[in-house]
Amino acid sequence: MSGPLGRLLLDSPISRLGYLYATAVGFTWGFLWSTGRVERRGGLFVFRGMPKRTFGRGGSCVGGCYLTDHNVSDAILEHEAVHKRQWQRYGMLFPLLYLLSGRDPLRNRFEIEAGLEKGGYR
Predict the structure, then answer these.
(1) CB 3.0–4.6 Å: which of 18, 46, 64, 105 could bond 92 by disulfide?
(2) Contacts (Cβ under 8 Å, ≥6 apart) of 89
(3) Number of domains in the chain
(4) Does a structural domain hold residue 9?
């Protein structure tokens, strides 16, 4: 997305508000469901001990929060930090764009950008 609309929506005050909203949602969700240690690592709020039904795949990044049961290796957190940056860039457009990129992580541009190996997809 380029031009005036891209400047308005991407890496903008609007996308920043979307990122902050998503972080608040992720923080609330993590606070409600986490039964493990909560820590700040690699710029992310990491919520461990989440029931599997409360996140996707091995873990989910929602804004600046990473929600998982126990999947917290350094490589995974590097992968999730890229997703955090994607949230910052796209704001609330990110979930829609991610969905449109498809469920197959090997073809999803956001998973590819975050690093398939670090994300545990290879």
Answers:
(1) 18
(2) 10, 11, 15
(3) 1
(4) yes
**pLDDT digits over 74-106, tens only?**
999 999 999 999 999 999 999 999 999 999 999
With respect to residue 26, please indicate whether it lies within any of the assigned structural domains.
yes
Name the one residue in this structure whose structure tokens are 């039964």.
35
- Determine the Cα–Cα distance for residues 107 and 84; give it in Å rounded to an integer: 19
Q: Is residue 122 part of a domain?
A: no
- Give the range of the structural domain holding residue 61, as residue numbers without chain letter: 3-114
